[in-house]
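Cross-posted from the bioinformatics board.
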Amino acid sequence: GAVVSQHPSWVICKSGTSVKIECRSLDFQATTMFWYRQFPKQSLMLMATSNEGSKATYEQGVEKDKFLINHASLTLSTLTVTSAHPEDSSFYICSASLLPGQAPFEQFFGPGTRLTVL
Amino acid sequence: AQTVTQSQPEMSVQEAETVTLSCTYDTSESDYYLFWYKQPPSRQMILVIRQEAYKQQNATENRFSVNFQKAAKSFSLKISDSQLGDAAMYFCAYRSGDFGNEKLTFGTGTRLTIIP
């Protein structure tokens, strides 16, 4: 149980275009989902916390107009990288936690999306 | 703010031997959760083990166990009978016990190599 999927797993796009990444909790409901960015050989950097039915909370230094997050249902959150540039190339990972107060309390991670901007 | 420190960027161990990965953290909270995640070359994050701070007993999952020292704010991971499939990046992570704050704070990771 507690499976999280991401789509696509790999995307290549041209500079200036927008890319949407989907994160789905397949067998549980998730009030809260998280979006991370990971550079090669580095740790995960939290970009934003996505809450179902409300605005996302962005970490300091993350451009909310560039990284649009929508959490339309208890099983789906999307990250849209708008007007992507080569410096946005990275590995993006989403995760989800169970409903507040519901054990276990770890986050369940998707397999990640590799974004390459040409 | 909480911080998590992993002081060993790389570790290696002979297959079938035991290795310990270190993790320290800083927090002013008394209720929290600690985790070890594994990230193999596929880059899929996999939970290895969890520890609730209110539990004095160290968590164990098969060949994986932790040494949780709350007063010292230390949370090391011991891998016994190391196997080739254990080769991965290992991340220590902290989560507040406040249900309104579910963010994970990660350490910088330790790359574990298994020598056949």
